[in-house]
Write a structure and sequence with these properties.
By secondary structure, the chain is of the alpha+beta class. The chain has helices at 21-38, 48-55, 88-104, 128-136, 151-165, 238-241, 256-277, 295-306, 319-322, 329-336, and strands at 5-13, 17-20, 59-62, 113-118, 141-146, 170-177, 197-205, 215-224, 230-231, 253-254, 285-290, 346-353, 357-365. The chain contains 10 helices and 13 strands. Helix 3 (88-104) packs across helix 4 and helix 7 runs parallel beside helix 8 (295-306). The two termini are 21 Å apart.
Length: 366
């Protein structure tokens, strides 16, 4: 027997610290001035006008702001916590998990599995998910998953399958996207892209949902196609291969133009196939909660699908406030913009990014 599965609660948490484009550019340009005065290789200056026009990003949240805007440092100053203290990433995961449980009308006793899924985990083991599981007092299992920008949608698929098969009554999927330690704030092409956030979703049997807003999962798709256009060589082997563990190639880097050109048609094709497969017309989808990497990218994808530039009502944008938050972007859009849907309305949650990876869920409000 397989069960129908629904999203029954969503939680969103963001740090209190904001970094505007202007602040970020001032710090980067101060760093460049110093660098250029002392070196032959001259670095280019950044501009907040470029950032907003090219990406739609106006600001981002930072878990720790201290250090990022210091031209001498250009990275956050993250305090070290002892092994017996809650880790930074588990802390932000809990900040999103608790409101998700409350929204679902569930407690730790109702959850059988915790999946922490994001672009990076701050350590290899013990899993952040198991730390969160212990902090919440959940009796069951937990594991971490890494799928870059598609970590949330891919984890929701794993959670769906566990509930559908009956191996878990309810699953808590959490995306603690602590991106700021992996941003190269000295790189003009990428210094503005990312922000920190945490999101969480509770999935359970559709028939058992008791929350005010729940969404049956009608269809799921995951697709990966290998590409080196978005890459980080950060990894545990740095200790053994004698490379600099803090070199630029160990941080996020990309060929943004190529990504834009290659991923937009892939995402549009994927979304169309996903919706049509379930007998739903593209125009019948009430809301598209898209990955939040670039406003121009999202407009192009929706234009390909609907023939028109989308309104905020059809495809809400949150990246102006949050920037790119890796896998959490589409979940933030969902968290902020779902309560006005009425029973029977369809929506699509979709991610696309490094890998390449594309993941999507077609949902119907119960
Ligand atoms: N300020 C001023 N000028 C600039 C800047 C800047 N900051 N940056 C570039 N320029 C200049 C360039 O040098 C170029 O000048 P010229 O024409 O003289 O060569 C001009 O502006 C145009 O540059 P681009 O062609 O690079 O600009 P684009 O219009 O393509 O915009 C973007 C750049 C915004 C990066 C755009 O290409 C984009 O958004 N592409 C999509 C990228 C994307 O979606 N990537 C996904 C990454 S996220 C992901 O997969 C998850 C990874 C895991 C998380 C990592 C967490 C840290």
């Amino acid at each position: 027997m397989t069960y129908k599965v629904a999203i029954s609660g969503v939680g969103l948490w963001h740090p209190e610290h904001v970094i505007t484009n202007e602040e970020l550019v001032a710090a980067y340009n101060a760093f460049v001035e110093r660098h250029n005065a002392e070196h032959d290789d001259q670095l280019p200056f950044s501009s907040s006008e470029f950032i907003e026009k090219a990406s739609g990003i106006r600001q981002r949240y930072a878990y720790v702001k201290d250090g990022i805007l210091d031209p001498e440092r250009m990275r956050p100053r993250l305090p070290v916590r002892p092994d017996d203290a809650l880790s930074h990433q588990a802390e932000i995961a809990l900040n999103a998990a608790k409101p998700a449980l409350a929204a679902a009308g569930r407690t730790a006793a109702d959850i059988d599995m915790v999946i922490v899924s994001c672009a990076y985990t701050q350590r290899s083991y013990p899993a952040i998910a198991i730390e969160v599981q212990a902090a919440l007092g959940i009796d069951g299992s937990g594991f971490d998953m890494l799928v870059a920008c598609s970590a949330a949608t891919f984890a929701l698929q794993r959670a769906h399958d566990a509930v559908a098969a009956g191996s878990a009554r309810a699953v808590l999927v959490i995306n603690p996207e602590l991106t700021s330690p992996q941003v190269n704030y000295k790189d003009r092409d990428g210094h503005f892209i990312f922000g920190d956030v945490a999101t969480a979703i509770v999935l359970e049997r559709a028939e058992a949902c008791r929350s005010e807003h729940s969404y049956e999962i009608v269809g799921l798709q995951a697709k990966t196609v290998y590409s080196n256009n978005i890459r980080s060589n950060f990894g545990y082997t740095s200790f053994a291969d004698d490379t600099d563990p803090y070199a630029a190639d160990k941080l996020f880097h990309q060929n943004g133009r190529k990504v834009f050109k290659e991923v937009c048609p892939m995402a549009a094709e994927h979304l169309e196939a996903q919706v049509v497969e379930h007998g739903v017309g593209i125009g019948d989808v009430r809301r598209w909660w898209l990955h939040q990497a670039n406003i121009n990218m999202n407009q192009l994808i929706i234009k390909r699908l609907l023939g028109d530039v989308p309104s905020q009502d059809v495809a809400p944008t949150v990246l102006d406030e949050f920037a790119n938050t890796a896998s959490a972007g589409s979940i933030i859009a969902f968290a902020r913009h779902h309560e006005d849907l009425v029973s029977g309305d369809y929506g699509v949650i979709c991610s696309f990014g490094a890998g390449y990876s594309i993941g999507s869920l077609l949902v119907r409000k119960q």
